[in-house]
């Protein structure tokens, strides 16, 4: 049989990471150095209809960000990938099904902290793709005196809103940390961000 088949991609996984839905894989054992990959996906709305992903056709890398090609974030999807080299190609290998809305994994937000006379203004920025910016992302903020376990909590703040904290009564080193939160069937949270600490009302 003169038909040589390429080794198929391995460990094909659809994973949600840091607000994105990404297909990842590893090269099949013994893949040639010039191998490229092509990805398609299918949604449970229309089974057996595999949709092309223009930015993941004949690519050299071993991942494909599908977030902004998904037409419906509330339907399960799966993806498949094949290896291509010259006129040879591997069989397609499929991932498991995932749904963005249910399975999204959150990353901690980055805090922007602005200390004024007797106020702190805090807002959070999220590493979001533009196609999911309209989702109702929220964040929770903690404030505490360095070394203390007693945290003041500000919960369920809309992503674009700034929290203003009156610091008139606070003196010393205070720390802030936040996590992303999102309501799907249950509440999801990211880990808390690395604390940002500021010195308040310091009489030098």
Short structural description:
By secondary structure, the chain is mostly beta strands. Helices cover 2% and strands 48% of the residues. This is INLR1 protein.
Strand and helix layout:
Blueprint: E1 10-17, E2 20-26, E3 36-43, E4 46-52, E5 63-65, E6 77-85, E7 88-89, E8 93-94, H1 100-103, E9 110-115, E10 119-125, E11 138-145, E12 152-158, E13 163-166, E14 172-183, E15 187-189, E16 196-200
Antiparallel strand pairs: 1-2, 2-5, 3-4, 3-6, 6-7, 6-8, 9-10, 10-13, 11-12, 11-14, 14-15, 14-16
Description:
The chain has 204 residues and is mainly β. It folds into two domains: 10-99, Immunoglobulins (Immunoglobulin-like, Sandwich), CATH 2.60.40.10; 110-200, Immunoglobulin-like. Helix content is 2%, strand content 48%. Strands 3, 4, 6, 7 and 8 form a five-stranded antiparallel sheet that branches. Strands 11, 12, 14, 15 and 16 form a five-stranded antiparallel sheet that branches. A three-stranded antiparallel sheet has the order 1-2-5, with no helix packed on it. The longest helix has 4 residues, at 100-103. It starts with 9 loop residues before the first strand and ends with a strand.
Number of strands: 16
Sequence stretches where pLDDT stays below 50 over 5 or more residues: none
- Count structural domains: 2
Order of helices and strands: EEEEEEEEHEEEEEEEE
């Amino acid at each position: 049989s003169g038909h040589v088949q390429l080794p198929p991609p391995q460990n094909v996984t659809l994973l949600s990471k840091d607000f994105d839905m990404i297909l990842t894989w590893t090269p099949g054992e013994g893949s040639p150095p010039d191998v490229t990959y092509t990805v398609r996906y299918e949604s449970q709305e229309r089974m057996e209809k595999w949709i092309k992903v223009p930015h993941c056709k004949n690519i050299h890398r071993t991942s494909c960000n599908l977030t902004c090609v998904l037409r419906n974030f509330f339907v399960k999807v799966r993806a498949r990938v094949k290896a291509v080299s010259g006129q040879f190609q591997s069989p397609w290998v499929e991932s498991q099904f995932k749904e963005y809305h249910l399975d999204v994994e959150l990353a901690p937000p980055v805090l922007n902290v602005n200390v004024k006379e007797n106020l702190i203004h805090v807002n959070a920025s999220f590493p979001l793709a533009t196609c999911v910016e309209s989702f109702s992302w929220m964040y929770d903020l903690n404030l505490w005196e360095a070394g203390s376990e007693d945290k003041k909590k500000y919960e369920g703040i809309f992503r674009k809103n700034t929290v203003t904290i009156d610091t008139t009564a606070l003196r010393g080193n205070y720390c802030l940390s936040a996590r992303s939160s999102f309501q799907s069937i249950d509440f999801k949270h990211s880990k808390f961000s690395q604390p940002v600490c500021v010195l308040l009302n310091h009489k030098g």
